[in-house]
Amino acid sequence: MYKLLIVDDEQIEREGLKAILQHGLPDIIIEQAKNGNIAVQLAEEFRPDLILMDVKMPGINGLEAVELISANQPSIKFIMVTAYDTFDYARKAIKLGVKDYLLKPSKASEIVTTVQRVLHLIEEERKTVETTELQRTALQRVMPIIETDIVTQLLFDHVHEVHLDELVGLLGVHTANEKYAMTVLLPPGAESCYISIKEKVRKMGSGWVGAMYGRQIPIIVFPEADKSYRSQAVTMARELLAVAKADGNDGWFVGIGGVYESLDQIRQSYQEALMASIDPSLPVKYRFYEDTPVLGVTRDGYPVKQLEQQLFDRIRLGQWEQVRNDLTDFVRRYENEGANLVHAQQRVLELLWIASRVLLEMGVEIDTPMFSCQAQDYRQLRAESELLLERMRQSYTEHHERIEPDAIQQIKQYIADHSHEDISLEAIGRMVGLSPFYISKMFKDQLGINYIDFLTECRIKKAIKLMADPERSLKEITYMVGYHDPNYFSKVFKKMCEVSPTEYRKTLLGKSASS
Questions:
Q1: 3-state secondary structure of 13
Q2: Is the omega angle on the peptide bond into residue 48 within 30 degrees of 0, that is, cis?
Q3: Which residues carry this modification: 4-aspartylphosphate (predicted)?
Q4: Count of H helices and E strands in the chain?
Q5: Which pLDDT tens digit goes with each residue over 210-235?
Q6: Which residues of 92-106 are buried (b: 16+ CB within 10 A; e: fewer)?
Q7: Global confidence as pTM
Q8: Spatial separation of the C-alpha atoms in residues 390 and 381, rounded to whole Å
Q9: pLDDT tens digits, one per residue of 25-69
Q10: Phi-psi region of 499 (alpha: psi -120 to 50; beta: other; left: phi over 0)
C-alpha cells in the first residue's frame, strides 16, 4: 500500500489527477494540498511515499516546498507537475533529487505510467532496506560467534589470512590502536557467570571475549588512545570483579598482560596475563604482568619470556621430553648460581603452573601443582619437580586416550553437514565434549589447516554446485551457503578460486551450454 500527496493550487487539476490515479492505481491512498505551506505540514502528518508537486503556486513554490520536505523526510520521492519545460528548472529539480516530471497537460496513460515507474523504484528501495536489515540482524546474531572465534585464532596462533581482516572489520573495532589481553580466573562453580562477563564487556564497548576454557575467560582489550593503559585496565578489572560481587561469588582473579601495537603480538600479552594471575590468593584481585616477580634468570643467553614461550609451545605440541629437559636445566642453572633454595622452588613452581594452564587450554583438567613440602636440597627439588611434571604428562596421555579415535572425522562431518549455519568452535566443542582450543589444535595437527579453512572449503564447494542453477542469483547463493554479506563472500571466493563468483559462473554456465 502506497500513500500519495497531490499538491496544486488549482482544485480542478488536483481532482483530475486524483480521478486518473484512482482509476489506474486503485490501491494507493491519496491526499491533497492546495499550496506549498500546506504540503509541508501534510508531509509531516500524512507521511506520503510520493508527492506530485506543482511548480508555480502562491507563497512558496514547488521547488522550495520539495527542499523543505526533503530536509526532514529524505525518503519521500517527488514528481514535478509543470507547464514549463526549461533547462534551468530541470537542473534545479535534479539537484533536489526529483525522480520525474509531468508536463501540463498530460495524457492519463502517461500520468499513470510515470507514477507507476516511481512507485516501482520505491518498492525496490524497500526491498533493499529490508534485505539490509535482515543482513544486519543476521550479523548481530552471529557477532558473538565471530568474536569468540577471532579471540581463539589470535590467542592460540591459528590466524586465517582470508578471514581475519574481514571478521575484524565486521566487529567494528579500530585495531590500529594499542591492545592488550586479560584473563579472568573463576572459582569452581562460577562458570555460569560467563554470559554476565560477556555482557559487561559488550556494554563497556572495549574488547572481545573469547570462549571459556576450564575456568578461564580470555579477553582482548582495546583501550582509548587518550587515556593511560593502567588506569583503563584497572577500571575494567574492577568492573569485571563487580560482576562477581553481584552474583554473590568470591575467589575471582584478573590477570592483565602488557600493551602491544599489533594483533599479531596479542598472544604474548595473553600469556603474560596468565602469568599475572599465578597467585589468585593476593588481597587485590587483579595484577599486571609488569608487577609480577621476574623469574630472574636467562637460559643460554635468552630472556625468561622466551623460556616461558618455549614451555607453552612444547606442551601444546606434546613434547614432554623436551619440557623435562628444560625444567632440569632451569633447576641446574639456579643450583650452579648458588641461588636461595626457597626462591628457586618458587620459580620452578611458577613454570609448572604455566604448564598446568596450557593443559587446561587443551581440556586437560588437573589440580594446581603444589610441592608437598619445602625441598631440603636441590636433589630433592629436582625429584619433586619431575614427579609433578610426570603427573601432568600422565593426565595429558589419559586425556588423549579418552578421545574417540574418529573425533576429527565426526567434527569434519558435522561441519560439512552444517556449513550453511552459524557454527563455531564452541558449538562443535559441546557436541564432541572437547575444548574449542583443543579442536583447533587437532585440525592443525591432523589436517594441517584451520577449522575455518575447512568450513570455507565446504561453503565454497556448495556455492559452486548451486551456481550451476542459472535461476539462482549470487546473492541468494551467498545466504544459502552461510554467508551474510555478498561482498565478503565474493572476496573469500576469489581468494579460494582465484576468480570472482561472477567470472566463475560465466565459465561454468558457458561450459554447460556448450556441452
A1: helix
A2: no
A3: 54
A4: 20, 10
A5: 877 767 889 988 888 778 889 999 99
A6: bbeebebbbbbeeeb
A7: 0.51
A8: 14
A9: 998 999 999 999 999 999 999 999 999 999 888 888 888 999 999
A10: beta
